[in-house]
Amino acid sequence: MIEYTWLIPFVPMLCFVLIGIFGQKTPEKGGYIAIAGAAISFALSGIIALEYLTGPDYPNVVVDSICWFHIGDLQLNLGYYVDGLTCMMMLFSSFISTLIFVYSVGYMGDQGGRKKRYYAEVSMFLSGMLGLIVSSNFLEMFIFWEVMGLCSYLLIGFWSFRHPEGDAASSNAASAAKKAFLVTRFGDVCLMGGLFVLLGAFGSLDFVDLFNPVNIQNVNPDTLTLGMLLCFGGVIGKSAQFPLHDWLPDAMAGPTTVSSLIHAATMVKAGVYLVARGFPLFVQNPDVMLFVGLIGGFTAFFTATMALNNMNIKRVLAYSTLSQLGYMILSLGAGGYLFALGMDSGNAALMAAGTAGFVAGCFHMMNHAFFKALLFMCSGSVIHAVGTEDMRLMGGLRKQMPITSITMLLGSLSIAGFPFFSGFWSKDLVIEAAFEAGDHNVLFMVLWVLAIVTAFMTAFYMFRMWFMTFMGEKGKNTLHAAEHGHGESPKSMTAPLCILAVFAVVSGFFIMFGLDGMLSFTELPGGFFQVGGGHSEGFEYFSELFTNPYTYLTIVLALVGIYIAYLMYAKKKINPGRFNREGESVLYKVLTKRWGFPDLYNQLSWKLGYGIARGVDYVDRQVVDGTVNGLSGAVVGGGEAVSRVQTGDVHDYSSVVLLGIAVLAVLFIVIAKIMGGI
Amino acid sequence: MDFTSIFGDYTAIAPMIILLIGALVAPGVHLLGKKRTATWGFALAVVIVSMVINVLMLVDGWTGSTLGMVYYTDYSGLMMLLFQIVLFLAVVVSNASVETTRFNVGAYYALLMAASTGMMFVAGSQDLMMIFVGVELTSISSYAAVSMKRNDARAAEAAVKYVIIGGMSTALTLYGISMLYGLTGTTNIAAIAATTSITGISFVFGIALVAMIAGYGFKIAAVPFHMWAPDVYEGAATPVSLFLATGSKKMGLSVFFQIFLIMFVSGTACAKIAGPEVQYLFAIIAAVTMTVGNIVAIAQNNIKRMLAYSSIAQAGYILIVMAVMSEYALSAGLFHMFTHVFMKGGAFLVVGALICAGIGEKISDYRGLAKRAPFMAAAMMLFLFSLAGIPPLAGFTSKFFLFSSTMGVGTAAGISLESQWIWLAFVAILNSAISLYYYARVVKTMYVDTGESAERIKVPAAFTVAIAICLVAVVVLGVYPQLIFDLCETASHALLFA
Q1: Which end of chain B has less Cβ packing within 10 Å, N or C?
Q2: What's the CA gap between A333 and A292, in Å, rounded?
């Protein structure tokens, strides 16, 4: 079956075409086609993963490709690349997407004919993600990366036609879509540059060539460093790391299902996946990994602060995504740093510790996918019932929406790192990776402290959100919803919630069944870097966790965070206003303004960029072109003006042209002199 | 197929002769028939016959020359095909376009066909004088074509500007050519290269080069010789703008390839000629051209002006070929020229179709277009994204080829970052990112903003067909570039090493 891996992204793409052609005539405007496509992809992923993991090839990668085009001595391929990481990624992506599509049937039920466009685009989106996961080379990966970017642009702007909250929200959606597209595009430019550097360095973009240490040794290390830093620029854009993080909260303007898709199963995970996939190249230089870790650790902390006082339920979740993505990047950075040091010194123990960091990052990515999809879909269910995203208008929904409230509680416990929930296992592994790296570089110690503080903040803001939504007095919209009998959401929405809730609780235990071995990053005796085939140490990890005093520190901090949130928002014993002078304190305002980043973006990109463009245009039209304009206007004017052609204006114009030629000539001579020609 | 038995000594110029006959007969057909559609049908038939002959000759691999003046090679055949495609697109929609209703269509088709004939002669020339004559034939025909929109002040202004600037460029070119003739005693490019490789390069030679670069720089609208392009594209009827933006510009680029690449790359020249200086000169022109084109495009409110500046930027990308000067770069450049025909041509066709439906040229006129004309809006979106280089559309693939040529793909040294042109690739990548900004703005206007009217609009069928052709090409060339790229590789090999 492995030879049919290409079908995994192909099936959703086929669905895109089918929905585009027949969507309008089928029930739910193509919704069932999209679900079937995602489900088939999931089934294929399952069969292929099983066959690969139990087959004779494991843990060697299975790779096959066909020539897409060849130019000169360069051949570019399309193909698939299956290893442990691919298996995990394609399984959870297709699985969660299937559930999101099922949920969409209920959530988007009242959107009429526009559903066709929605289902077509989400199918394409899934196809982009799955294609990216199974790609066998960087160019193929980049193409799917861009396809996803384009689809996210279309999907975030989906509600731009007719937003339930009116025109302001519509134009928000539009500008958010543009921002998402352009900001991530900035990262894409870096990635494209990185690909060119890698292509230049290796003469190939196939993973099998790039991950071969023999080839890596032939490359100038500085070149490789430049290439990987540029690639990481792409990650910063796509996975919304500091300082390009600001597009993700804005992308909340799209439908909640799209947010769920972007945050859990696809899009932002692509950046983390790129780091994991390119790990053999990233670990060639510890300083690159240090940079990766710094960006990740700082993002985790920095973005968590903005979730502390946000009143919009989806925004809080968006910031928590940013923060969790920071954890993943931090973990990969710390692990990579250790691995790189270990390779330099030939220290196998360090390399093993590095592998642990890699596993932690990937493991957290999977767990996060489950609980974040759950949390977003729960918030969608709430929004569906109360018709607002403002948590101040909610409250006391627990009785009205029992399933949603319980599943969301499970999700929140998981992300907060409550013991034995999935988030607890992976988050502690991440924090431990940072701690281990701290032994070798004091900066990682700082990041470790930040990570611990972030864990506390996460517990606090998640439960602030849960208490504000489901506990306490009934808010305005809650009452309103109760009057109109808006209770629990339909089955097509709650069923996926329940399934995901199970996974959010138990997915941490996957590591007991060899997940870490499947995800371990190893260098084969032959020298090839690959993911998979490691020794499974699930129980050792666990016993280590519980003998480590710092684990208890994070548990206590999480519990304290939850308790403070309980006192503030459920019991109302502590007035949150006491800490921020009723919203008047400087910190509160700064947080509300998102540390000024949206303004900064505005000033930098739109104002400055557009200003420059206007300036250049002015010179072009008025100064250079003005003479020409005056001249030809005069000619059109009539006979008298024609005479002026012979007297003055042509002369002016010629001087402009001659100036251009003179500049060229001087340039030529200067270049010739510099290069010693002539 | 034995073409020689059919066309005799004139086989090498058979595709041009047919067009030329068409150009001469078209006014007569119009005069006798008095029917616009009949003339259109005649012109279209002539174009298709010429195209079929050319494609047959190209696929057959026929090579030869007529009178030792015009050569049919794999290169000239491919360039002729490109010019014929442009002409075909322009002619197909001309009858349906409301902008050409007041034209004397007999003269109009004659001018378009004559201009294309000139371009095709350029592609087949190996002599400076022949190139000059071909360029003039094209230029003079296009001046007249631009000015045909008689009662429009903008068109008149554009035409006057175009003529004056064109005259200027002609003078400069002739100046350069005469100096080269004075230096070497010949106008044959290969012979000039051979002579110069013995005598070495002199200041006069340098001045001649600069004069010729400037003269033909007008044709491709390279900065700082670009300012006519936006005015002319804006003022002319849209089919003519399409013809100029995608055809005339490619002729200028082809002239660059044929003169400078042969002088500095091909076997007859040798290292003694100061190639690197010229390369740097072109690299700077390329970088400045793409940057100015893209930045100024941001500030445009008229879609035709925006497309004009974007054309300038695209010419800047193609000028990378002149900086890198390798066979692979030329193949990539040729390929990009083809994809550019379809994406830029397609975008102009959409603009023209919408003008027929009574929608203006301002970008703000496109508000809510997605609802009023879904196919047009979707097509425009794909063309613009292709221009911005978003995979998997043709623009991405061709840009990837073009930019990767800076790293020495296909050269003896192999792919490496040691190449001095890698900075040019970064400038180009950055520019593609800037360009997305103004393309995305149009897409947003079409899809997000709500317009004053939500009424469905109908565009003429001819436009829909032409746009569909471009759309298919943009997608197919993006997914399966080898289709044309192999031809481009053969062509560039033929030009440089035959």
Answers
A1: N
A2: 5
Taking Cα atoms as reference points, which of A405, A424, A415, A409 lies closest to residue A368? A415
Does some domain include residue B217?
A: no
DSSP string, B140-202: HHHHHHHHT-TT-HHHHHHHHHHHHHHHHHHHHHHHHHHHHHHHHS--BHHHHHHHHHHH---
Residue B449 placed within a domain: yes
Chain centroid to Cα B27, Å, comes to: 26
CA distance A381 to B446: 32
Q: What Rg value do the Cα atoms of chain B yield, rounded? A: 22
Domain coverage including residue A646: 597-675
- Answer whether B214 sits within 8 Å of A142, measured CB to CB: no
Which residues of chain B carry a pLDDT beneath 50?
267-272
Domain check: are A622 and A509 in the same one?
no
> What global pTM score does this model have?
0.85
Strands B64-66 and B70-72: antiparallel
**Are A320 and A450 members of one domain?**
yes
* pLDDT per residue as tens digits for the range B275-328: 677 788 889 999 999 988 888 888 788 899 899 999 999 999 999 998 888 888
Q: Do A185 and B280 touch (CB under 8 A)?
A: no
The rounded distance, in Å, linking the Cα atoms of A304 and A79 is 39
Whether the CB-CB separation of B410 and A71 falls below 8 Å is answered with yes
Check CB contact of A660 with chain B, cutoff 8 Å: yes
Pick out chain A residues at pLDDT < 70: 72, 113, 157-180, 182, 485-486, 524-527, 538, 576-584, 596, 598-657, 675-678
Rounded Cα gap, residues A523 and A213, in angstroms: 9
Give me the number of domains chain A comprises: 3
End-to-end CA distance of chain A: give it in Å, rounded. Answer: 65
Instruction: List C-alpha distances in Å: B449 to A55, A250, A505, B271, B453.
Output: 54, 19, 44, 58, 12
- Give the DSSP H/E element, type plus range, for residue A63: strand A62-71
Query: Count of domains in chain B?
Result: 1
Q: How far is A212 from chain B (nearest CA, A)?
A: 18
B157 contacts A671? CB cut-off 8 A: no
What is the ipTM, given to two decimal places?
0.82
Within a 10 A sphere around the Cβ of B409, how many other Cβ atoms? 25
Two structure tokens written together for B305: 């002006």
Domain residues for the domain of B295 are 274-498
Name the token pair of A250: 């804005």
Backbone angles phi, psi at A655, to 5 degrees: -65, -35
B36 close to B91: Cβ distance less than 8 angstroms: no
Q: Which of B146, B149, B151, B164 best probes binding to A when mutated, by most A CB atoms within 10 angstroms? A: B164
User: Do residues B214 and B172 make contact, with C-beta atoms less than 8 angstroms apart?
Assistant: yes
- Tokens representing residue B181 in the block: 């003739």
Within this chain, do residues A331 and A258 fall inside the same structural domain, yes or no?
A: no
Point out the domain boundary residue: A282, A297, A324: A282
Sorted by sequence, the CB contacts under 8 Å of residue B330 that are 6+ apart come out as B257, B261, B321, B492, B495, B496
Residue contacts between A and B (CB atoms, under 8 Å) = 201
Considering CB atoms only, which of B210, B274, B404 is closest to A199?
Answer: B404
Contacts of A635 by beta carbon, 8 Å cutoff, 6+ apart: A641, A642, A645, B157, B160
- B87 token code pair: 């002409």
Token readout for B303 is 């879609």
Chain A residue closest to B393 (CA)? A143
Whether A638 maps to a domain, the answer reads yes
- Residue A206, helix vs strand vs coil: strand
| Domain stop point among A565, A592, A619 | A592
Does residue A622 share a domain with residue A585?
Answer: no
User: Does residue B51 fall inside a structural domain?
Assistant: no
Q: Are residues A537 and A631 in the same domain?
A: no
CA distances (Å), A181 to each of A248, A277, A348, A531, B179, in order?
11, 23, 43, 32, 52
Whether residues A358 and A273 share a domain: the answer is: no
> What is the spatial distance between Cα B425 and Cα B385, in angstroms, rounded to a whole number?
20
